[in-house]
Amino acid sequence: MRPGPRRLAGIILMLAAAFLLAAPFAFKPYGIFILSMWAVMTIAAIGLNLTLGYAGQISLAQAAFVGIGAYITALLTTKGWPFWSTYLLGGVSCFAIGWVLGYPALRVQHHYLAFVTLAFNTLVYLIFRNEEWLTGGIYGISNVPRPDVAGWSMNGPREFYYFCLAHLALVSLATWWLIRSPWGRAFVALRENPMRALSLGVDTRRYTLMAFALGAGLGGISGALYAPLVQFVDPTPFALGLSLNLLLMVVVGGSGFFFAPFLGAMVAVLLPEWLRFTEGFYLMGYALLVVVLMVVCPSGLLGLAARLVRPAGRPGARSTAETSVAGPDAAVQSEGAR
Amino acid sequence: MADILQLLVAGLATGAIYALVAIGFTLLWQTSQTINFAQGEFVMLPAFFVLIGTGYFGLSFWPAVALATVVSVVVLGLLFKRLIVDPMMRHGVLPLVIATIGLAIFFKEAVREFYGADAQPFPPVVAATEVTVFGVALALQSLVVLAISIAAVVALQLFLSGTRTGRCMQACAQNPTVARLLGIPVERMILYTFLINAALVTLAAILITPIYLAKFTNGEWLGLYAFIAAIIGGFNQVRGAIVGGLLLGVIDNFAAAYLSSQYRMAIPLLILIVVVLVRPQGLLGRIEERTV
User: Do A110 and B109 touch (CB under 8 A)?
Assistant: First the structure.
């Protein structure tokens, strides 16, 4: 790779990090809240990017996992449980449920899988709404407390923002490590050519389930942060709309690119706030952008950027549509590594 | 007994409408591997075309319906294929799924923006009276809906199996390569299925909107029900979509009456999950071969 693009990417990253660290001093509490929401949604989208972008399994159930994580945290912390135990419990239960939800993916693909996960999301939503004895029904659970870290209260908006940002950083590092490990290569092999991956000895069954479980677990963690951030949990945010929104975040950013969730969540969470004056037209414009992007460049905004920075010669490194080259390679490498 | 018969007829009537939408869904899939996530919005939209006709242009009901049909066939048939499906054929199934999700959001927001979020009343095809059959009072509307849907499905079947064009379309669905070798204009046949789909959703819109009112969110569950109907019956069969739609309508109505109205929506979803896991090809479907 020529040094140009990499240096450019480095500079953009540094600027972004500097902005994120300094932002709370420039914004009002509501702005900080929106930025924290961006961090929380990015974590959920990172999970979905693992499932969809790297392992190639479509899931329309991510909102259900964010919901499960949020409800577990809200239910237990309001009953006096310490935050960290509910946080872990949320992540682990979502991991387990995600593992089970992965089983349909072993039998069916593409649109069938999309609708099965969609059905799951709606079922979970119905449970949130109707089981009042547990979830409080449409009235939800209010006064979710924010945690203390080593004696420091995270109650203020600025403190909690840094708390979310720290989680985002940790999750990003863990994911970065994961996709460079043999596991990540196996995921890509699964996406590019499952038959070939299987014939090269990749246990596609286990990795499919693992892709779902990891994605769901990150959804649960995102939910565990959502509950204390909003301090109120009700069923509406976890309906199908959020799942579609998270899917679009990943795809608009560029499914299978590491930074896609960050960019996608920015487009879906931050931009609507800045473009508030456009009212309902924002969503229309966003929907049109998705359609046009899919027609012009299905590998998303980052795919488009990669194409602009590296014209011709080298095809985009990891775009979903254009790479049958990366798949078998990755499969072979992962074989070597195991 | 009377209750059961009333529920059955009402269920069959809504089921027949689901079947119409599901048939369109399966036709698009068979000829062009298009999974239209916006199919529900495709049903929601023509109702508003009719309302715009009667409201803004002051037309009476039937001319407005005629206008809405023409607009739907052009926008949801021709333009949908030319502008969105055609350029994306080479990208595979998934990007198209996502593009149609985007399209669904676009239609929904556009209606909310230009027509408001309130449910609008919609004129029924026949007056809301009851007729007595074997001593049971049945809604005339349900019977008319059922009759019109059956007539539409029979007409479609006759067209597909009885005319030359219809058979060419079937050939394209079964094997486009061979169809092309035999000199069938495959592209044009695919276009016909998009036009037929647009006509079917318009018919479904006119039949179902008087029951559920015209609202921008109608597409969310309509599309899901159409897909469930298609899956229950078998994705690659028109027959399957009919059986699936009727079955779903009846089950849904009985579940709402006898099990739980809160969890009404859950039953079709559970059926969907079970069918996909146990018999993904559907009750009447054939297994499609997997390509490596």
Answer: no
Q: B71 touching A, CB under 8 A?
A: no
Total structural domains in chain A? 1
CA–CA gap between residue A8 and residue A185 (Å, rounded): 26
Global pTM reads 0.86
The gap from C-alpha B97 to its chain's centroid, in whole angstroms, comes to: 17
Domain ranges of chain B: 2-218
Q: Classify residue A108: in a domain, yes or no.
A: yes
Verify whether the Cβ–Cβ distance B109 to A107 is below 8 Å. Answer: no
Token digits of residue A257: 């690119």
CB-CB neighbors (< 8 A) of B105 in chain A: 244, 283, 286-287, 290
What was the ipTM of the complex prediction?
A: 0.84
The residues that bridge with A148 in the sheet, in sequence order, are A153
Chain A: closest CA distance from residue B223 (Å): 11
Token pair listed for B259: 């099990």
pLDDT tens figures, B103-155? 999 999 999 988 888 888 888 887 777 787 777 788 888 889 999 999 999 99
Contact (Cβ atoms closer than 8 angstroms) between residue A216 and residue A65:
yes
Task: Tell me if chain B has a CB within 8 Å of the CB of A287.
Answer: yes
Q: Mind listing the pLDDT tens digit for each residue in A120-166?
A: 999 999 999 998 888 888 888 988 888 888 777 888 888 999 999 99
Q: Domain containing A145: what range? A: 28-337
- Do the domain assignments include residue A200? yes
Give domain status of residue A5, yes or no.
no
